[in-house]
TrEMBL record:
This is Spx/MgsR family transcriptional regulator. InterPro entries: Arsenate_reductase-like (IPR006660), Thioredoxin-like_sf (IPR036249), Tscrpt_reg_Spx/MgsR (IPR006504). Signal peptide: none annotated. PROSITE patterns: ARSC. Belongs to the ArsC family.
Length: 117
């Protein structure tokens, strides 16, 4: 018996909504964790960084990143990235899907089809 996958994101994110809808449409059980509302532990974030790399996890294209003061945008180390993402969880690329120990970033139907086939 495997635990249900956990989908991490924020409720207002369109990509998170698409992922939730896709999972629900196929009757795939999952737990949803809104990291803006429910928080995010440093240990969880570090496990994602170890799985996919901080460069992939840090969303430099989003509004939150663009609004940061210029010195904060100069992220060059994992420690700086983790600190920044803990301070501003909306900087995390979304959604993050954790299933059976693996971590998937973003949502594309073909990616999820491979994960659940």
């Amino acid at each position: 018996m495997h635990d249900d996958p956990v989908l991490f994101g924020i409720t207002t994110c369109d990509t998170v909504r698409k992922a939730r809808k896709w999972l629900e449409s196929l009757g795939i059980g999952f737990t949803y964790h809104d990291f803006r509302k429910d928080g995010l532990s440093e240990a969880t974030l570090i496990s994602w960084v170890q799985a996919v790399g901080w460069e992939a996890l840090l969303n430099r294209a989003g509004t939150t990143f663009r609004k940061l003061p210029e010195p904060e945008k100069q992220v060059t180390t994992e420690a700086e990235a983790v600190s920044l993402m803990l301070a501003h969880p909306t900087l995390i690329k979304r959604p993050v899907l954790v299933r059976e120990g693996s971590v998937a970033l973003g949502f594309k139907p073909e990616l999820y089809e491979k994960l659940f086939s």
